[in-house]
């Protein structure tokens, strides 16, 4: 790696550096992104795997055009998954695919309830409540304002309480 003040970086070195950054980002962020897409997609393992892989592949192809790779990759993965889900949306929610360590019967009610939400509400709930991102971080990752994230969270939680029959809880 070059030290500051060593002169300009050659275009080839710059490309390799950005590609290494995306590879590092993959190692550090892909599991969390996969879990987010898995929940967003109603437990569709193959859809989560495909969306994450495709988002990172596109990031490598467009590495010189991306300012914030993590946010770009998250938005791209959610868009890919959303498009796929729109094509399959007709009818009842899909059954979750088997995943080691997760019994589909244990999560079916929650995944079915998530399916009743709009895509942005579902993404906000999964990223904020499941993965622990703050509202501004969720907004950055899916390309909406933090205030809009909070509105989606409020409406999604209200809907989930209706569907799941849960107790009232306080919104952050």
What is the percent of helical residues? 55-70%
For the residues shown, what is the average pLDDT?
82
Beta strands, count: 0
Q: Span from first to last CA?
A: 42 Å
Shape: globular
Q: Please state roughly what percent of the residues sit in beta strands, choosing from under 5%, 5-15%, 15-25%, 25-35%, 35-45% or over 45%.
A: under 5%
Task: Please count the helical segments.
Answer: 7
> Biggest sheet, open or closed, and with what strands and sense?
none
Q: Rg to the nearest angstrom?
A: 18 Å
Structural class: mainly alpha
Order of SSEs: HHHHHHH
Brief summary of the model shown:
The protein has 172 residues and is mainly alpha-helical.
Fold blueprint:
Elements: H1 11-40, H2 45-61, H3 69-88, H4 104-115, H5 119-130, H6 135-142, H7 146-164
Structure description:
With about 170 residues, the protein is mainly alpha-helical. About 70% of the residues lie in helices and about 0% in strands. The chain contains seven helices and no strands. The protein has helices spanning about 10-40, 45-60, 70-90, 105-115, 120-130, 135-140, 145-165. The chain is globular and about 45 Å long. Mean pLDDT is about 80; it is low at about 1-15.
List keywords for this structure.
mainly alpha, 172 residues, globular, disordered N terminus, 0% strand, 7 helices
